[in-house]
Specification:
- By secondary structure, the protein is mostly helical.
- The protein has one domain: Zincin-like (2-Layer Sandwich), CATH 3.30.2010.10.
- Helix 3 crosses helix 5.
- The longest helix has 16 residues.
- It is globular, with a radius of gyration of 14 Å.
- The N and C termini lie far apart (37 Å).
């Protein structure tokens, strides 16, 4: 039973290595493996964004505020940032790639609702 509880907690609060593994899985599944992140890590200093990336370095940072949120929401933010490794802007090509993630719209709604409840205004990735 303790092993099951530990595994459940690990899924809720993945390590940086777990995030990188998950990003690679999402890239393989939805982006034909074209987005190749060098690192994915939690950061404490992103208070107004859910994630960010530096395409030149292939680095992705996720706000620690996402910890404990459903995995499909974290996956969406990873997917959003992975797509920025391929398309830097938020144009039609970018959104077409993000929409390959089947829960994209649902996750955006979840994050918008969370932001509204927490602060009264929506935030962006």
């Amino acid at each position: 039973m303790l092993d099951r509880l530990a595994a459940k907690e690990q899924r809720k609060r993945p390590s940086d290595d777990d995030l990188l593994d998950r990003a690679r899985e999402l890239s393989a599944r939805y982006l034909d493996g074209r987005a190749e992140p060098a690192s994915v890590r939690w950061v404490e200093n992103q208070l107004h964004r859910w994630g960010s990336c530096t395409p030149d370095h292939g680095t992705i940072r996720l706000s620690a505020r996402l910890r404990g949120m459903p995995a499909w929401v974290v996956d969406y933010v990873i997917m959003h940032e992975l797509t920025h490794l391929l398309v830097p802007s938020h144009g039609p090509r970018f959104w077409a790639l993000v929409e390959r993630y089947p829960k994209a719209e649902r996750a955006r709604g979840f994050l918008e609702g969370f932001s509204m409840a927490a602060s009264g205004s929506a935030e962006e990735c």
